[in-house]
Amino acid sequence: MTLPALHNTGVLYRRILSQFPQDISLAFAYGSGVFKQHGTSQGQMEKNMLDFVFAVDDPVTWHTMNLLQNRKHYSILKLFGPTMISSIQNEHGAAVYYNTLVPVDGRIIKYGVISTESLIDDLMHWKTLYVAGRLHKPVKMLVQSENAKLRAALVANLKSTVTASFLMLPESFTEEDLFLQIAGLSYAGDFRMVIGEDKSKVANIVKDNFQHFRILYSNILRDCPQVVYKPQQGKLEVDKSPEGQFTQLMALPRTLQQRITKLVDPPGKNRDVEEILLQVAQDPDCGAVVQQGLWKTVSYSSKKLMKMWKGWRRKPSMSQMS
């Protein structure tokens, strides 16, 4: 199965990408500077910062080349060299190193660099849900290598998103309900949604990008045995039996399963994960437990990133960090 992607061949994106080292396994643009959000005019959108993520196989080599080409993009950390920058990238926050407030071709951009290995890990296991969460929503895919493991992880991330959303939704719901749930997954537990962010951000993302969400998820929904998908009516029905919910829980990413088991299993009991998830599947509050597990994952990585950014970067506004 191939990943449905919103490919963009616009001159602006090609010009921006041409100013960076080309050894990139995956590059995408995202956010309010790329996709229109409800209540934002085209003029406002063109003034918003453009957000990018670059996945690279060898971060040390990539930062070495980028420091030669774009040294001014970096904070004071450039004085410590590419090895230190890569170490900070890999060992702190969400395994992403960001350069922000960078003027390129008449626009202000920020770009995050993540190793291909760390990206695959986040897509498969939701260790931080930081970059994986951005890929739950429509993005403009600019570069995608033939790396089969990465391509499979991109699809697995979308399937996991659907599964987690099913567990938190009622038996019958609309496509809009599903897409709102999906768009909100990576914001659960994010302190920026409590202070500084537009509280209607999730609804604004979905409202003007409904068809983009459909393109991204329609094949997965059609192929999923856990749901009856009626695209003509925009309605879905999911299996909410204990057996159905257990199947869905067992298909969740590893980190989320671990968070759920820690929430449910008393300290020292050390029951098997499968046994605990079977118990959760029979709980009327199953969806709330999954929601709490997501909250733990996102809040942990969000707080770590905030702490790192405060110490090591020029300080952007809250709205520039999403």
From TrEMBL:
It is a peripheral membrane protein. The keyword Membrane applies. GO terms for biological process: cardiolipin biosynthetic process; CDP-diacylglycerol biosynthetic process. It is found in: Mitochondrion inner membrane. InterPro entries: Tam41. Its cofactor is Mg(2+). It is an enzyme of class 2 (transferase). It catalyses: a 1,2-diacyl-sn-glycero-3-phosphate + CTP + H(+) = a CDP-1,2-diacyl-sn-glycerol + diphosphate. Keywords: Lipid biosynthesis, Lipid metabolism, Magnesium, Membrane, Mitochondrion, Mitochondrion inner membrane, Nucleotidyltransferase, Phospholipid biosynthesis, Phospholipid metabolism, Transferase. One of its GO terms (molecular function) is phosphatidate cytidylyltransferase activity. GO terms for cellular component: mitochondrial inner membrane. Its EC number is 2.7.7.41. Pathway: Lipid metabolism; Phospholipid metabolism; CDP-diacylglycerol biosynthesis; CDP-diacylglycerol from sn-glycerol 3-phosphate: step 3/3. Catalyzes the conversion of phosphatidic acid (PA) to CDP-diacylglycerol (CDP-DAG), an essential intermediate in the synthesis of phosphatidylglycerol, cardiolipin and phosphatidylinositol. Belongs to the TAM41 family. PANTHER family: PHOSPHATIDATE CYTIDYLYLTRANSFERASE, MITOCHONDRIAL. This is Phosphatidate cytidylyltransferase, mitochondrial.
